[in-house]
Amino acid sequence: MFLYGHTPGKGLPLERLAAVVEHAEAIGLPTVTFAELAAGAPRTAALALSFDDAAIDAWYDVRGLLADHGARVTLFVSRYQNFDDDGRGKLRELADLGHDVEAHGVDHLRAPVYVEEHGLRAYLDDEILPAIAALRADGYDPVAFAYPFGARTGELDDALLDHFAILRSVSFSTAVPIVVDPCPR
């Protein structure tokens, strides 16, 4: 099972997050990180929790709730270059607690639009490679990437799989689809 959100307590109500991790614990459903999935985690029922973007304070504030239920989460980080020392320290503490830190791009760009306007090489050079380098410079080893807005193409998948072992996309049910077909292959 997969659950993703952005800001616990805002876009993801704390009661809902608590209910999910409490129920998972009660039925013996372990959590798995995207790094573990990329490494070939055993194929068994599990819950993959992830938070996207840069809501470091909100992520940090739920560390106790997660720990109380043995839950770990993957943090798909964007705009890492804007984190101050306090934010970077909180992210390091979360990683030290067993949470996974992964890439979500430098500036959270809608990939297909950027590629159409600037080219695939520019997207890699402007959005992907600097995100990987920044995380690695601080001791993280990103092996997973979450597309901002879930927006992706087969061309992007092929290019990003040269840099990541696993990619995550999402689709949305709306009157006007944000992503028409998140998985065309």
List the helices and strands and how they pair.
Blueprint: E1 2-5, H1 14-26, H2 34-38, E2 48-53, H3 56-61, H4 63-68, E3 73-77, H5 85-96, E4 100-103, H6 111-118, H7 120-137, E5 144-146, H8 154-160, E6 166-168
Parallel strand pairs: 1-2, 2-3, 3-4, 5-6
Kindly identify the CATH topology: TIM Barrel
Using the CA coordinates, give the radius of gyration.
16 Å
List the uncertain runs.
179-185
Mean pLDDT value: 93
* Strand ordering within the main sheet: 1-2-3-4
Number of domains: 1
Shape: globular
Q: Compute the separation of the termini in Å.
A: 22 Å
The largest sheet is:
4 strands, parallel
What's the CATH C level?
Alpha Beta
CATH fourth-tier homologous superfamily: Glycoside hydrolase/deacetylase
Relative strand content = 5-15%
Strand runs, count: 6
Q: Portion of residues in helices?
A: 40-55%
Instruction: Tell me the series of helices and strands, N- to C-terminal.
Output: EHHEHHEHEHHEHE
Q: Do you know the CATH architecture?
A: Alpha-Beta Barrel
Structural class: alpha/beta
